[in-house]
Amino acid sequence: MPRSRRFAITGANGQLGRALQRALGASADVVSLTRPQVDITDWPAVRHAVAHARPHIVLHCAAATDVDGCERDPEMAHRINALGTRNVAHAAAAAGAWLVAVSTNYVFDGSKLTPYHEFDGANPINSYGASKLAGEREALAATPRCQIVRTAWLYAEDGHNFVQTMRRMMAERDEVSTVDDQFGNPTYAADLAGALLHLPDCAPPGIYHLTNTGATSWHGWATEIQRLTGARAVINPIPGALYKRLASPPANGTLVSLALDRLGLQLPDWRDALARCLAP
Ligand SMILES: NC(=O)c1ccc[n+]([C@@H]2O[C@H](COP(=O)([O-])OP(=O)(O)OC[C@H]3O[C@@H](n4cnc5c(N)ncnc54)[C@H](OP(=O)(O)O)[C@@H]3O)[C@@H](O)[C@H]2O)c1
Q1: Could you point out which of 51, 144, 195, 248 has its C-alpha 20 to 30 Å from the C-alpha of 162?
Q2: In this predicted structure, what is the pLDDT of residue 181?
Q3: DSSP H/E element including 267
Q4: DSSP letters of 67-114?
């Protein structure tokens, strides 16, 4: 990989896309591809945009991420997450670029009793997970110069995420109910972004799990948000069965990495990351 290299970022207006741009800094050579500039489901447009950008590395963050929306419209989910990823991967290959494609813990069914590592079998239980898994397979088939990075429970200072939703609800209500029998790894987009930029230099192609260290339930996460913000609302634990949603999340959505163990790319503990995100 050359020292001075150009990045192309799909989904550049999303929470991870914005975090990547912040991590790269103003002086970096970056082509930010937003949805108005290029719809990833439009192959001629994607091929042209990536060829024109001439990147060394494509960071593919564009996705349909509304999990219930994907359940309502599985064809939309597959068009964006599977076909869109096929298009981005083939465009990256045609441009001679390395591809880092971001995926999700929702490729797993959640029945395992311990955290999922990279070599566990995927078996999605909702349309979002199925469409993301199809996208992983498309990317790996399109180019050998590809890293799939599965992450979980992503949040940032901005955007639509659990931390910002909880902060708003805790300010508006006296009581907030949160699910205490579904587990994941809250992951700060800024931490993930920093590590993603190093991955092409230090690891071979393949699938990687990358989250902040440690795991908790939605309830544990909300309780920590409350502690850090000093919010007064009472946080009640409820079972997932009482929180009706269109899409079922995996009960155990926790990830661990075997593949990154020795590469020094471990992200800090999730509580440390949350405190940095919420610091005034
Ligand atoms: N959020 C999570 O908790 C989470 C957890 C695990 C993995 N991930 C994965 O992490 C990656 C980044 O997620 P994120 O949280 O940053 O998502 P996000 O904030 O929802 O951003 C996704 C971006 O993709 C864009 N996009 C959607 N459809 C598109 C299309 N057809 N063409 C071009 N752009 C399109 C969206 O544009 P618009 O804003 O115009 O819609 C948005 O800017 C995704 O691959 C996601 O699956 C996320």
Answers
A1: 195
A2: 96
A3: strand 267-269
A4: HHHHHH-HHHHHIIIIIHHHHHHHHHHHTT-EEEEEEEGGGS-S--SS
pTM above 0.85? yes
The lowest-confidence range among 81-85, 155-159, 219-223 is 155-159
250 has a pLDDT exceeding 70: yes
Mean pLDDT of 147-161: 96
Conformational region of residue 206, where left means phi above 0, alpha means psi within -120 to 50, and beta covers everything else = left
User: Is the distance from the beta carbon of residue 102 to the nearest atom of ligand 1 less than 6 Å?
Assistant: yes
Q: Residue 87 Cα, ligand 1 centroid: separation in angstroms?
A: 16
Question: Which residue of the set 128, 155, 188, 208 is catalytic?
Answer: 128
pLDDT at 127: 98
The token duo for 82 is 């599977």
Cα–ligand 1 centroid distance for 181 (angstroms)? 26
Amino acid at 107: V
Q: Distance, CA 251 to ligand 1 centroid (Å)?
A: 22
Ligand 1 pocket member 40 (CB < 6 A): yes
Best mutation site among 35, 66, 128, 255 for ligand 1 pocket (most ligand atoms within 8 Å of CB): 35
Task: Judge whether 116 counts as a catalytic residue.
Answer: no
